[in-house]
Amino acid sequence: MKSIRQLVRAALDEDIGQEDVTTNRTVPPNVRCQAELIAKQDGVLSGIEVFRMTFDSLHANIEDWDSRLDGDHFEKGDTIATFTGNTRAILTGERTALNFIQHLSGVATITNQFVERIRDLGVRVCDTRKTTPMMRRLEKKAVMDGGGMNHRHSLFNGVVIKENHIMAAGGIKEAVRAACDGTHHLMKIEVEVTSLDEFEQALEAGADVIMLDNMTIDDMTKAVQRAKSHRVVIEASGNVTMERIRPMAETGVNVISIGALTHSAPSVDLSLLISNA
Questions:
Q1: Does the structure show a pLDDT above 80 at 74?
Q2: One of 20, 127, 145, 192 is an active-site residue; which one?
Q3: Annotated catalytic, 246?
């Protein structure tokens, strides 16, 4: 949590600068208010803790806190949270708090939409490392709140051999062998491929996971059939849309990874309203 508190503090410093001139000139210092977080559209909640943390960082002296939980579904018009606190602190932190929770709820919401498209097929939807700098921990949690799964959190968490690694190593076989020799026996090796020929090379090299990157539905189907006699996880990625995810899942792949869950999620429209305490 220390890293999240530091992130919140940095975000507040960016927004406030030397002071909140408007609030400090128009609102007496000891006034308290009642606040309500209202949904202006349907969605899935994520980021309620960092939303609260923003006001705590400004010493808003929050009381009577009541909120929904991350992962909860909400509808337009629903009250997501109510609380009382120092008016100056709440007004000063409002934009930063909303920026966090609107973005994270957007990630959770779009993830849930993808998950629901293929829920009956038993294929996992997961994220990528295409995250906002310094926001990865929060965004990956938002994916989980939306019903998705996490890919590796960082470069340290697993071996994923991509096009440039293959080029630098001298080929798929060479890259897999070097990765196996340089890691412990519990670490799995994933190889990203863009054609059936590369898929065969990765299969023969003994990859534990093979990522089918931007391949056609027909080629995905062929790869899945070819892999049936091997103990290998098949992941599909690239050009994943709401319209395309079901045909991709129907090929029989095990996992579909989607960068758009974090890098292109539209923010959910939420509003913070205050009244006299």
A1: yes
A2: 192
A3: no
Work out the average pLDDT over 168-178: 97
User: At 42, is the secondary structure helix, strand, or coil?
Assistant: coil
Active site residue 95: yes
Find the CATH number of the domain harbouring 93.
3.90.1170.20
| Average pLDDT, integer, range 174-203 | 96
Average pLDDT estimate for 74-80:
98
Of the listed 129, 130, 177, 244, which one is catalytic? 130
Element (H, E) at 257: strand 255-257
Confidence of residue 2 (pLDDT cuts 50, 70, 90): confident
269: annotated active-site residue:
no
213 as an active site residue: the answer is: yes
130 and 99 part of one domain: no
175: tokens are: 């890259």
* Residue 157 DSSP label: G
Q: Of 9, 129, 152, 162, which one is the catalytic site residue?
A: 162
Total structural domains within the chain: 2
Q: Is 130 a catalytic residue?
A: yes
Q: Which of 49, 145, 198, 213 is catalytic?
A: 213
Enclosing domain of residue 19: 2-112+265-276
Of 111, 109, 119, 117, whose CA–CA distance to 44 is shortest? 109
